[in-house]
Amino acid sequence: MDKSLKTIEKYLVLLTALVSPILVLPVFPDYFNTPKLVFLASFVGILILVKAAQIIATQKLEIFTSSSGLPILLLVIAYLVSAIIKTPNKAEAFFVPGTATLIASLAFFYLFTSQGKENKSFLSIGLVTAGFLASLVSLVSLAGINKNLNFLPEFAKSENFSLLGSSLLSFIFFASLIPLILNLLIKDNKIAKKIILSISLLVITASAAGNLYLILPGKKNSPKLPPTKISWEIAIDSIKDSPLFGAGAGNYLTAFNRFRPVAYNSLDIWQIKFTNSQNFFLHAITETGLLGLFAIILLGLVVFRILTAKKGDTTENQDEIQFDFLKIGLALSLLALFVSGPYLPALLVFFSYLALNSKSKKVVFNFEAVQEKERQTSIMASLLVSLPLIIGVIVFFYFGAKTVSAEYYFKQALDAVKRNDAKTAYEKIAKAIQRNPKVDRYHASVAQLDFLVAQSIAQKKEGEKITDDEKNTISQLIQESITEGKNAVSLNPQRADNWELLGNLYRQVMAFAQGADQFAIQALGQAVALDPANPLLRVSLGGTYFAIGDYENAIDTFKLAVIAKPDWANARYNLAVAYREKGDTDKAIAEMTNTLSLLEKDSNDWQIVKKELDDLQAKKEAKKETGKTGEVKPEELTPPQKAEKVVEPPVNLPEEAAPPSPEAVPTPQPETTPQP
């Protein structure tokens, strides 16, 4: 029985190493990361069940310890504690993106793969096979052959398609496997295996070179990553805000919104919101604080000890050349984490090299009865040890299955929206929410869908009027839209994007509903507080003030948008229009002139702004001559718009439609923002 279970364990290790880094399934919104995480977590769970069965069958508990075990355990604890204490939305910590689950699963996988030569051998075979298959797909894609293969789904026909998810991850994965293959080539004396390994080495090396070319600076597939300096500042501010636990596992986007410096707006990627740091280590420190930093420092010391150890000190491998290749692989996989976020392929290779380089010591706790009369006690002892493992895995599988099915239905809802099939979209997203009501993304999507349907009903041809039934339907849809927007905020009140969604919903229904303008100002104001360096939010808030004729507050808000990004033409244009509407012609001319200097002369926008500037200057001259002020009609760059009434009389929003009270979350203001 024990022998059979160990055989099952070895093949589970093989399958996990083979499938988890390259699995791609278009049944989830994220084709690449979600399937990989689901497969890894599922098979690690099965491995734990097999281990529990071994404990019961043998009445022994075998624990393998190594120098890498302690820092890995501390990193897992840091992620779990951070997820429980700090992450507002636990679904993000444990399921999607599920950083805590990813780290915990990799830690368990390390535990299984570091025990004994056979498991390490099966791990190596699985990784090399995965690399070979992924590199074949990559080479086919690099050659453009995939575009002509009709049996492939559309997403697999995309340019430079990769099973790993990106050209950067492909290069990291393939390059990191080269030392492992060289190690196996030297170790194995069988000609057939040497031929297979040589072919694998050739294919993987070629694919690594091709993907390296794609990610060179200036190339189309060159990765867009936040600068190290920006990621560093976010990590430091996150620790200042919550020293021990950081921003919370799976909560990097919130930290990015709150702590990115104003200097980020000077970059050409300023409109991108990153959900990952520039590298794994800064990402982990941001999410887990000093606990994670301590674990990373210990892990670094362990890796340094392995890399500088003499032959045989840290592994069971006695061949100096083989030993050196494994050390080279560990060093490469560690360096790769300095340019990669918390992605499974890169982390899996690193944890695998840790296992291959570690020398484990076996500690055995024997529950087996010496005498027949003690047999019952022996069985009870083994059950007491194994049952918590079994129960833990069953609970995880139960909630995991609900989460995975929810993501599946959410993907179907998104596909229905693309087909303009509102009925199916409602049905599928309702199933997603039923299975996992704690995901703010689902509620945000329902809110947007409700509003789009209400908007389509309200849009009538010229001369047509909205019927009473249609007005009732619009009113109901608006209220449902706002309710779902509030649900999204309640599930993750520190996420600026949720407040922005709610604020924009209120803005959009200002044409339908009385009182929505003040609600929009409240919600967008909270979004600005949680994302203070974002000039887009300040323009949205300023536009709301402008729409209700509050030009003073509109000007003050647009000024802050200009301070946050002085070279953004649209912020200055909005400020100029607000000055113009207020009647401050001189300041309007100054800002229109600034706007003009930021636009290309051959662009349509330049022509629009030039005409408005000429009109303002003519107005100023006319005012000097006559003392009268003429009206200037706003043109279209993307100026703030006054609210228009679409439904007459407007729909009255109930009291419960008001935005929820924001949590008191102190966010450091950008240094360049003037203090009141």
Any overview of this molecule?
This protein has 676 residues and is mainly alpha-helical. It folds into 2 domains: 2-366, no CATH class; 405-657, Tetratricopeptide repeat domain (Serine Threonine Protein Phosphatase 5, Tetratricopeptide repeat), CATH 1.25.40. The protein is built from 24 helices and 4 strands. The strands form 2 sheets. Strands 1-2 form a two-stranded antiparallel sheet. A two-stranded parallel ribbon has the order 3-4. The N and C termini lie far apart (74 Å).
Lateral arrangement of strands in the main beta sheet: 1-2
Write down the domain tally: 2
Shape: elongated
- How many strand segments? 4
Based on secondary structure, the structural category is mainly alpha
Radius of gyration: 30 Å
Sketch the topology as an H/E string, one letter per element: HHEHHHHHHHHHHHEHHHHHEHHHHHHE
Low-confidence stretches: 627-636, 668-676
Helix percentage range? 55-70%
First-last Cα distance: 74 Å
User: Would you tell me the overall average pLDDT?
Assistant: 88
Counted by DSSP, the helix tally is 24
Largest sheet, strands/sense/barrel: 2 strands, antiparallel
What proportion of the residues form beta strands (DSSP E)?
A: under 5%
